[in-house]
């Protein structure tokens, strides 16, 4: 069953937005303005206090989780954030790099069988690597406690769930719960929910066992495993966290970190494969700064790679993993042109279009990493670039994401050169909850024989 109408929706929106600087559109039964001109976006950001609630359509995420840091506000949001922030804290990030490096080494090994072969879709290998990293870092477990097939199925079901949520957003007649419950979408969504929650339940049980046994033996770990906090903390009302509460938070965090990271890596790699001159420059930087050595990378190494940063930022500009951000106005909000949005309006910031404003980028649809030279960045207002969102609800996994993406790209590029027969015209973009490229990540790889593998 083909559920994704996102590709058509992306084309329609791009056609309409050529005609007007900011449009109103209906999503489901709600009047939902789509805003992407820089003046209005700047104005909205000034009123951020009145738009911290997520758009009503996001509530469909509850088909997967009952509570979620991604959409909740108030008490339950603060309660989850207090614990989840630890998962991506600076102190932990240093330790996480060990996991980023070792899991990427496995990815490099797995890909060796594809060297010199025909074009293949890199998405499954990347998904496996990212889920393994998230299990290791967030859950404090070696991903090998699950089989490769189980992990790949988990990644697939996560992807399916997002697809089901998008499908409901795009179908007004499925908004009322009583109608949705009779739909095939509900059945499919429930199957995914069960698989995902069972998978997380097994991981939580395994971690709790490990935690109790380390406690009994008085063993101290090098890093705080955030999930352990649930076993010893109380909720704000004094009760204990239930397995369902923990599953909700784990699934929300993995859900937030998985798809966005795989999408980022996919677009960067395919853009490098299309733009061989840029790939050559990135490779030169890596070999010069890291002395061609295939050792584990630390934050100092990664912070040296400025051109690689430019390439990643430029890819996020053209292909932001979250292309639209939906908020609910909790007060009347003034717009730049003298108009205003009424309290209760669901508004959508079209980040992907905002990022292609010719005022700030002379040739806005062209991939050009020079757009992120420090002097060029200084010329633009900071709020016209928001791959990680804005304000208080901005992504707090951004440093984690940047480090993991750079580690993976470095190891891959030190070992392989990526090629593709495709161009940007072949991309089949779909606006789902995240930005999907339905044509996958079709690449072939060539070994860099001159690099010594330690
Ligand atoms: C390149 C990868 C990533 C991108 C592009 C990204 C992007 C975003 C964006 C745009 C938002 C704001 C959503 C909104 O305003 O509606 C967000 C929120 C969030 N992200 Fe990320 N994200 C990435 C990776 C991660 C990772 C790796 C984690 C955690 C491990 C994470 C955790 C979160 C959380 C918990 C929120 C909700 C924050 C809140 O509402 O207070 N993200 N992300």
TrEMBL record:
Q: Where does heme bind?
A: 395
Alphabetically ordered keywords of this record: Endoplasmic reticulum, Heme, Iron, Membrane, Metal-binding, Microsome, Monooxygenase, Oxidoreductase
* GO CC annotation, single: endoplasmic reticulum membrane
Protein name listed in UniProt:
Cytochrome P450
Recorded GO molecular functions are: metal ion binding; monooxygenase activity
Q: Subcellular location, in the record's words?
A: Endoplasmic reticulum membrane; Microsome membrane
Question: Record's family?
Answer: Belongs to the cytochrome P450 family.
Cofactor requirements of the protein: heme
Q: Which superkingdom is the protein from?
A: Eukaryota
Kindly give the membrane topology term recorded for this protein.
Peripheral membrane protein
Q: Name one Pfam family in it.
A: p450
Functional description taken from the UniProt entry: May be involved in the metabolism of insect hormones and in the breakdown of synthetic insecticides.
